[in-house]
Design goal:
This protein has 448 residues and is α/β, with parallel strands linked by helices. Helices cover 30% and strands 27% of the residues. It has eleven helices and 28 strands. Helix 7 links the parallel strand 13 and strand 14.
Amino acid sequence: MQTPSPSARPHVVIIGCGFGGLEAARKLQRADVDVTVIDKTNHHLFQPLLYQVATAGLAAPSIAAPVRALFRKQSNVTTLLAEVTGIDPAARTVQLADGSQVAYDHLIVAAGATHSYFGHDEWAPAAPGLKTLADAFEIRRRVLMSFETAETTADPERRRALLTFVVIGAGPTGVEMAGTLAEIAKHTLAGEFRRIDPGSAQVLLVEGGPRVLQAMPESLSQKALEQLERLGVEVRLNARVTAIDNAGLEVQTGGGPDGAPLQSYRIPSSCVVWAAGVAASPLGRLLGNATGVECDRAGRIKVEPDLSLAGHPEISVVGDLAAAMSHAPGKPPKPVPGVSPGAKQAGRAAAANILRRLAGQPTVPFRYADYGNLATIGRNSAVVDLGTPFGPLRFSGRPAWLFWLFAHAYFLIGFRNRVVVMWDWASAYWSFQRNARVVADVQGRSES
């Protein structure tokens, strides 16, 4: 069955309602087109704060908004809760999991990314990643239940493993997770248990590279390392994970440029969080196979300067699914980083180029404006690297933490979300408490 376009106007289909898809749809708000947004979830998720749901700092509705509510006043948008299983460029149709099809005149693919375990997908059950609300609920359950189980076990070795939390990968998500876990152990849960001391919990941050936050300047990377250590996080650099199971992980060190001998050791842990790698949605390779366009090793599809596909100008790819380049006048092309500002800007640019095509005008290359990078480490601890017309502005500590707070609150979807999040943060700052600590199912997934 084929779902018809709502009218005879040009039909733009957008796959995914993340940052790129949402901005593309908003850009088309006043255009004389019909827009269909397809997403396999019913909500837009503010992923930069997802770790706070995983660590009980925020409830899910604070960082998520129903897709239908977002487009309630945009009359040219139809939303479909469905999973895309294929794209037929020749027929210009999108195939859905229920067997139906949606025809399009122009297509924007913004399906995002998923976890990458570097060829070891068998690690996923023992070390969940953090990309969806379901992931956050599961990590939160594991963290809280580790403390609860440690309270009831008499075996000291088992208790030690239960109170050892390991975060793999020292990018922004890993750094934020590790710092927050240390705060939970030392402050939030203080005085709540009688047989264990939550403050004795060990939080390890394992990174295969030589420093944390490798995308940031080395000076800020060092600042972040120092702030993590002050919070009580044990950072292990140049440590490569070679195996993960339900009882812990194997780590290998050495063998680098300094010629250090290879050494392997095991870390017993009942709670491991994966923050080491991402890969493009499988839809990227499906689209590449259907169009004959090449994908890179991470599964991202290579796009033209205007974000369209070679030979298929009616298809644009944005966000984490696109191996896109920024084309600034007079400068060599630079890769667009896989961050939310890049996805937002690409979504708007792809939609604008569709409008140019419809008006018979030439499209323009995508130009990414890099406003810098932020990462929070914990209470009063963060690093900020901003681009300004006068050169980079870099700072850390409490001023950076306050900047991070207000920047993330500002970009949240909806006034209510901003108010709720700021209230929760203020409450947590003065009380050290995290109010989203409800676990509905101690054996399965928690929800709130």
